[in-house]
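re: the backbone from monday

yeah here it is again, tokenized this time
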């Protein structure tokens, strides 16, 4: 009888442990990926690099348009779901970081310039993971506005589809002006 009475207590303890672990996992995921929230006077913005087709190296940003008011403190979290390491640049705000496949890079800055600025992941070299294909150049837009009410949303502007954020849709292996062209090995002889 003694063991039969102890089992419900162990079962309750197991359920409590499961609930605690789930709450901890959700908290860790919120910290790692974030939910695009405003916290502590700053705006947390999450941008993801999605890989839609690993064989053909078809990728896109989500969201591809980010809006913030002038003077806003920004915490930018870039999650790289591509199977390739990528570089993320937002040159006008001094951001140029490498992001390993499957990881998140966080950076903070103040949106102290009005305008429409491009964020880019330049063409990435071929690797065994990509079966020798170049990872395409991707571009999104970081828009700093004077009127805070115009910056209430961060949207994908209806895109978020495979290949929708290529720097040059006609040739995604080309970097935009101001970025050096990729001149490394090209085993598939794709156009550069």
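seq for it, each position gets an aa:
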């Amino acid at each position: 009888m003694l063991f039969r009475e102890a089992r419900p207590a162990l079962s309750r303890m197991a359920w409590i442990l499961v609930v605690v672990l789930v709450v901890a996992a959700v908290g860790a995921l919120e910290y790692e990926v974030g939910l695009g929230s405003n916290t502590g006077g700053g705006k947390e913005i999450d941008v993801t690099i999605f890989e839609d087709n690993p064989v053909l190296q078809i990728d896109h940003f989500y969201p591809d348009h980010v809006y913030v008011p002038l003077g806003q403190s920004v915490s930018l979290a870039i999650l790289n779901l591509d199977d390739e390491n990528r570089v993320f640049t937002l040159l006008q705000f001094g951001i140029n970081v490498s992001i390993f496949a499957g990881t998140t890079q966080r950076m903070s800055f103040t949106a102290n310039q009005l305008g429409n600025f491009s964020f880019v992941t330049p063409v990435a070299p071929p690797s065994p993971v990509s079966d020798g294909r170049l990872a395409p150049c991707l571009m999104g837009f970081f828009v700093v506005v004077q009127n805070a009410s115009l910056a209430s949303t961060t949207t994908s502007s209806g895109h978020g589809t495979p290949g929708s954020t290529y720097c040059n849709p006609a040739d995604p292996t080309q970097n935009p002006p101001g970025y050096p062209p990729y001149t490394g090995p090209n085993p598939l002889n794709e156009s550069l």
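The first strand starts at residue 38 and ends at 39. Residues 26-40, 155-160, 185-192 have pLDDT under 50 and may be disordered.
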